[in-house]
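Record 1 of the preview.
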Amino acid sequence: MADISAFQPLFPEERVLGPLLEQAAELVVQCHRLAGVAGQPLARSIGPRLRAMNSYYTNKIEGQHTRPADIDRALANHYDADARQARKQRLAVAHMAAEELLEARMADQARPALYAPTLVSDIHATLYNRLPEGDRVADEGNEIIIPGAWRTRQVAAGRHVAPPPEEVEGLLAAWSARYAALPGLEQSVVGVACAHHRLLWIHPFRDGNGRAARLHAHLVFHALGLTQGLWSPMRGLARRQEDYYAHLNNADLPRRHDYDGRGPLSQEDLIAFAAFFLETCLDQSQFMANRLDLGALRGRIADLLTWLAAHPWQMGSEKSVIKPDAVEAVHYVAMAGPVERGRFMAMTGLPERTARRMLASLLDWGLLFSPSSRAPVTFAVPLASLRFLFPKLWPEAEVDEA
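->
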């Protein structure tokens, strides 16, 4: 039988909870402000790029990331000739697909389902089932990773010796019961942070625990209605990776003194980890609110069109045609959503032949998208556009495209 006292406390005592609840409340308020942007066409257009970014950063934490441009190529089924690079590309694409599928599956889930052990297993399985068996190899030991299966051997993660494998299911049941029962939104937000560490403490899988735990935190925030698909802890944790690992390791430490909680693990260090985690989440939600400053978007689109006009590219037997004066038409599609092709060309104010060539050029470059030759056009956010439209959103991508 699992010793469920071994990873107590799972949640801070009420007497020390106040500062964390204040952080959680601030995050909730910021997320509700961001929700005003979430349903707009521009937010939907940037969604696929943010999913690629999440994949990049969670894999970067594991030391298995590939360049943003390589992820972009993999999405078009162009994989590197180097086997190791191709494996990283497949991992990135698998994470993106798993995140999208699981977000849809989590819609309208009751609070207890967010911490069900079956969900933890499903997250791991959904990710690793998308990889060929040759890619499902543990980082150490060359063991094959079985998607969604609890580990069957003793392991260590850094200084932490994980509990025996026979205790995993019992510990997960206790983990699930504690966090699913938290009342109110603010306590639930604090719970996401605490649950993240304690899930990693259990270390339920042979490999892939970090990816699964970060994806779990992302999904719980999503299910609570806080991310709106516009931010994720993954980017912030990767950009503060040393602090992330330090706080994770410290939260493994034993209780120090009589005022350090009532369990064998340090409550003070659990609080410090949760505070760091929530600070990171608040920083990311605020960052995205700044990046999605719609008031400045028209000027950024104008800058991009000016750059494209100055750097024509070959399209079959002709060169691209971009006219910066058509900024209003492009800005309208970004803000309003799909527009019929004829209407878009009329909005540019250009002669018909020039407008048609410009439309073809924007579709070719990827700033506009259409599923067929007759369908309306929608705004898109190709990788190369980020440094103009959303500067500093994904700095590594800007280096790739510079």
